[in-house]
Amino acid sequence: MKQILVLGAGRSSSSLIRYLVNESEKENWKVTVADRDVSLVKEKLNNHAHTKAIEFDIHNEKQAEEEVAKADIVISMLPWRFHILVVKHCIKHKKNIITPSYVSDDIKALDKEIREAGIMVMNELGVDPGIDHMSAMKLIDEIRENGGEVVHFESFTGGLVAPESDNNPWNYKFTWNPRNVVLAGQGGVAKFLEEKEYKYIPYHKLFRRTEFIDIDGYGKFEGIANRDSLKYQSIYGLHDIRTIYRGTLRRVGFSRAWDVFVQLGLTDDSYVIEGSENMTYRQFINSFLAYNPHDSVELKLRYYLKIEQDDVLWEKLVWLGIFENKKVGLKDATPAQILQKILEDKWTLAPDDKDMIVMWHKLKYINAKGEEYEVHSSMVNIGEDQTYTAMSNTVGLPVAICCKLMLNGTINEIGVKMPIEPAIYTPILKELEGHGVQFKEKEIRLK
Amino acid sequence: MKQILVLGAGRSSSSLIRYLVNESEKENWKVTVADRDVSLVKEKLNNHAHTKAIEFDIHNEKQAEEEVAKADIVISMLPWRFHILVVKHCIKHKKNIITPSYVSDDIKALDKEIREAGIMVMNELGVDPGIDHMSAMKLIDEIRENGGEVVHFESFTGGLVAPESDNNPWNYKFTWNPRNVVLAGQGGVAKFLEEKEYKYIPYHKLFRRTEFIDIDGYGKFEGIANRDSLKYQSIYGLHDIRTIYRGTLRRVGFSRAWDVFVQLGLTDDSYVIEGSENMTYRQFINSFLAYNPHDSVELKLRYYLKIEQDDVLWEKLVWLGIFENKKVGLKDATPAQILQKILEDKWTLAPDDKDMIVMWHKLKYINAKGEEYEVHSSMVNIGEDQTYTAMSNTVGLPVAICCKLMLNGTINEIGVKMPIEPAIYTPILKELEGHGVQFKEKEIRLK
Predict the structure, then answer these.
(1) Whether B202 and A290 lie within 8 Å, measured CB to CB
(2) pLDDT, position A187
(3) Which one of A57, A69, A107, A409 counts the least CB within 10 Å of its CB?
(4) Cβ of A230 and B198 within 8 Å?
């Protein structure tokens, strides 16, 4: 019986755990799930015979090492900064490990030790990063195999609300960590390459430099540049590419309205607002506007940011309640924390709401005959409910499938890995298709 | 014979050294000036009998301690981060010390040791900080003495080019560290209090939220908010104030044009531009604009930032040469470094140019009878030449005068000090008047 150790039983582990439990009898697995909150684990495992729930604290080094030592493979769904602690135990006891997070610098630095231990540390195996890598590399590798050269690469992913639950003027609800949504785009300029020209967009212009994307059957979206698109040149081996651009998807109109918050300064997380606890939403907005004893907050805001009387974005702002005399109630809060509070009042999913993951790639390539083509590839995944969300499915299933393929020897590598090699992504993408993660492709001849 | 040790003989030490040398015979002083570049010192001292030039490295602890031990008083004109090293020697050998820089946290932390040694560490004794503190506190203390209460405080200072040398469309030239000018306003939100409301301006809006200020005989200026005006509430004891606002002065129209650079992202010092060395000024600007194979950089910029065809700010941009095919020639440079290079081509003072320091305070107070008054107080100082600049005079003279007053016992305190007490600022301001640092006051009855 193979022992699987899953660390972390939070929201994004639901689909992962369901898959492992469902397969456990057929595959002869024992699935141990560990979390600080053991009741959360028990609820998810439901006393299934092939499972075990344990209370677990990553800071208890002894327990962590003992559990790793007992396992055949480890899956860390912990916050990314804790992976390194688990990886060290995995090296010592020669156990493979999977995480859905970006390869961190400290894990990269252990590559030599990881290779010497003969283990695989598989990272970036969720949806973004994860399914984006796999589906993009499949397209790129196919073009290369046929003697073609990729000259243009764009890729966008978004976590959104499903069309059937989309009933607010922002066409948006929180389907993952709200704090990350509020801070998105900060911490570095957006860099990309367009027709061999390096381009830079500062944060305060990011939400006004979007592009529109049409996805058959799902309508229009807008794409906002991610921070560093340039590093994917080396990751994907696209050294001579003319254009490389990665971004995040929202429904059309979101970014123009969000830019109001950026322009005011409401997304700043670096300082505390004086007297935030007893201030109202309206006073919060007013503290970013010039003083005037007579004019309304509404008119001052319209004038400051040149918002026309008939601009549809105004409805979005009013609907959020930013002009209401509601108490903030957060002590020593940053602008970003207060904004998050305001948004959480309105952008929280209702019990019956479903989420949606949308992914879209656009490539251009020149084939062996010198003809130029454009390829569009898109994937839309709708959540089942509030447990098995699209986010949970698209993050957890690639991890679960990879775990199976590593245990049965189909995937058999050594070192710090990302799913960008055919031997890794081909079997994972194939099985994902059976779980509704399907890409639709479309090719157009350009010249 | 009293021994004065001056550390640092850079540009801002010229007027300080001239004063000390001129007074040295009458006062019976020996003035030792120490710098890494001893030739710089010799040039400034010109073999005067009461002086001594020494080569000095602040990282040579032994030399630093020996020189401090020999002195009766120390003046540190070194970059602010080095003051702490000198202060430690001063504590050990019980010597008073003066610096024109902001009180640093590490100096503040030594207050107990400084008091136990019975010495005075006098800081913030230049122009801004320095003359601004002294002139503001003189006004505030006078109002208080007469039973009045200050309810409104605004204070602005600017280092500018003198009217007779003001011959470019920006009405600006570099009269101090260009790097600080390019980065001004970064590193924290601008906070202030207006009619008891806390107000916050993010960096990307700072140069569009200016106010106009008129100074008799010198015309109009515009004021840009400084980072943290709130801390002056406690420094000046203005706890119940309605409005407190401090800022920087430029000529009218500067900020709207500078905002073009902020909006593009050219003042960012946090990352390096790919291939900066071989890029032209025009390509540099283009890397912040959307790609288009046909449109000009000029039209893309106008369209992006909505600059009207007849807007006068355009002339400022063209005059700087930002659209020219001139090589940047800086390897691995940040946007801010490249912008500084472009500006230095044009904003450098010509040999005959003079600089100017402008300071302006506006206070409102309610007197003992309940009447409300507004006071304006302004000071304009024009530099003599490129050595005895207004900057050098207004930074160096308060330091030099304070040094004399400390040596002759007129100023006699213990601890970490700023010039905000009458016993300190009164004699310094009085002597400064004789050196052309004069404030003009104007009072208006409001109600």
Answers:
(1) no
(2) 86
(3) A409
(4) no
